[in-house]
Give the backbone structure.
Amino acid sequence: MATDETNTKRLSMIVTKGSLDWAYPPFILATTAAAMGLEVTMFFTFYGLSLLKKNLDLSLTTLGNPAMAMPMMGAHMKMPNLIAALPGVNLMTTNMMASLMKKKGIASIEELREAAIESDVQMIACQMTLDLFEFKREDLIDGPILGGAATYIESATKSDINLFI
Amino acid sequence: MSDHVLDARGLNCPLPILRAKKALKEVPVGETLEIHATDPGAVKDFEAFCRSTGNELVDSNSTNGEFHFHIRHTK
């Protein structure tokens, strides 16, 4: 239940993962919620913080992902762990996914992130993660504020929807 | 026929919604936006979008794998 004085619905989410496949749900939901009139807050922590880097270099989670079935020549290809573990294979599957996404008209993460910023999604970069992984503020895009758990919790208590991704 | 047309063909979720939201800003209140899309998921999504935002889904139809939506900008 929102305790805010306005009737605007709010969505807050914790973004903890930084791979190409896991980057989509938070950015899709954030941009869509903003388009539907919600106030959105995203808290980027641990591996999720890398989604705020100026230069995104996202990889697919291929190894140990039995649900990943890439469409290929009318069938679906699953990748045995033994092969997924080989050098270069993850780069190959990442490139395959990127070209598949382009073909299917799916937005890039850069595009969705830009849309999120344009629609005033509030982004909080976790200060502790920044220190832990020795990132510098200038490694990240402009816009996100630096904050910690309390900054997120304050936002979460005012939100109608809270997601952990 | 609407005065304002958005071509969202070939775009996948959530781009038709995001582009429509952006396009609606340019549509004066009371006028309608016509959206062309090929994403089958857009049918349910535009219904939900309109219910949530208070804009009116005047018409939603499909022909030859293309979906046409007419949204009246009310808010």
